[in-house]
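Please, structure for the following, as tokens.
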Amino acid sequence: MTAELVRGQNHPLPGARLEIRVSAERPVIAGATLNDQDGRMREEGWIAHPAQPQLPGLEVSRQAAAEHRLAVDLDALPDEVHRVNVLLALPRGEGGPARFGELAPPSAAVTELDGEPVARCTLTGLGAESAVVALELYRRHGSWKVRAVGQGYAGGLAAMLADQGLARAPELASQIEEAVADGRARSVAPAPAPHPSRTDGERPRETTVGGARGIADGGTGTAAPSDGRISYQHPNRAAGPPPSPSSPPLSASPSAAVPPVPSVPATAPGAGGGQGSGAGEAPYAPVAGDANGWSMDERLYNQVWDMFEDLARTVSAYRSAVDFADSRMEQELDKVLADPRTRVGPAADAARAEARARQAQLVEKAREVLDRDLGQLRAESDVVEPALPAAYARWDNPVWHGYEPPAQPPMAMRLGDLALPESAGLRIPMLVRLPLERGLWIDSGPGGSAGSAATGPAAASVVTPDEMRGLACETATAIAARLAAVHPPGDFTLHVIDPAATATAALAPLLETGALSGPPATGAAGVSAVLEQLTRRVDLVQMAVRSRATDALPPDVDTAEQLLVVHDFPHGFDDRGVTQLRYLADEGPSVGVHLLMVADREDAREYGPLLQPLWRALLRITPVPDDHLADPWVGHHWTYEPPLVPHGSRILTRVLSQVATARATRRTGG
């Protein structure tokens, strides 16, 4: 049960790895300070803020936002740290509130990594304060607790930092605010020196990423390229001249503990050299795998989510700037029209022209910042895409031509690409964790989502209903093939239901290669047999898990991960079949049975509200580019592009043939 805390109340923490989630009415700066036993900050390196987002055991967001997720690993903090103060501050800038009393009370919550809340508090009673200490995590008798603080400072960040013992509080506060204001938020203070009690041989700390896993923040460790080591410097963070070979590392980054791996540095095309905060900084050079993680795959996964976050932020900032410019121009024009004496004439024309010129100037400046950030992200994408493993790569990536069946499943898989209208061709891989937590629904209905932006209807309007159904089935085949390819041989079983046998052409790669061990189930009898088999497996595995007797499962129960592809639902399904399908969607993922449906929701209207829970349980994707996916973080509607195989490519058949051969070899013990 979640503890609702008021000022001064405390609550024990269940573990060392946590998230702190902040919610406010308007964008705020979020950070955290480390304090010793006396509640003092010993140095400037003991604060994580948007320009220095990462410390050992602590990661914060890099820009002002209305929603924040801060990652905390209490076991990774330096031994001298006894308190972690979570701070919020209002960014300075034209048009924003100057004190928290002008806003609805912000809230802060401590959650576990799966999003389960532990404690929360609402920071009521704030007035003239522009900065506030929201929560305090503190160590007491060897265990950690959280206390609701709510201590505000009318003097802002400077007063807050000075109160915690920082000598250069005004200078650091000014640098943080300037970095947030100009959208850089990258290079304010140097990273902290490694703690003497920690060694380079420590096992790196796992990074939390995306959704219930928090926000992906990359590593800040650096290494001198002159001695052949790999630099893990993030392209948008703390750029500076490289240290000499004899210099110690600048930070105790978890990434520094991972053995170096090959990666391809590149300079940003058209970026004009470095994008740092001052002269003399090193040229911008992105590196693949520049994020925390226990393996290269995890570092690339985290880096992809980092790119997603950066693109979301920079587009959000651009849209806000344009909205502000338009609003300001409308106010100035309304002021001209409000006075009948200035409504017409040369003075009125000059005022209107001046208002429009100011609006154009503000939009132009916002576009310059957006183009700069997009240039950095494109350069990073050009480096990251070729370095992605098969599970994360597009089908046209050369990595598939060197494919070999893996020995263990990956942590995630590419489900398509995401883009925004302003991203000018930049696509971010859409990675989903494995095993799948939700089933997938490929919408085969004509026209895509209602009310889509240009990318949605434009793509769907040129596709006939029959072509849409064909593309939907091709998308299902590509996703099923990727799932089969990224699992070890024998650890993944595929089932297909095609009641009217209308998907034979799209399913040909699965059938011809033997990746699908048997023909698709057809007719009412075939549908019933497959559903009975999978519901029985779910029931038996659930009972075995509850009774802790998984070794007592019947020998005919396939314990491999299962994927059921249902084509052209609801044709061929009676009421019992629909109920079984809902049961598999709800209960299957927890015991390794996953659902992928190809369906037009309009075709299922005869079932009425019976199927509403089924649609809500599935992640809807489309076989043509469509902007139906919305993130809860900044509210963007992302254009989703399905993971189709390039036209004329034989890579799918080649990969599936290797999958089938490896599976047969394992069965025969070869």
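The CA atoms of residues 129 and 154 lie 4 Å apart. The longest strand covers residues 17-35.
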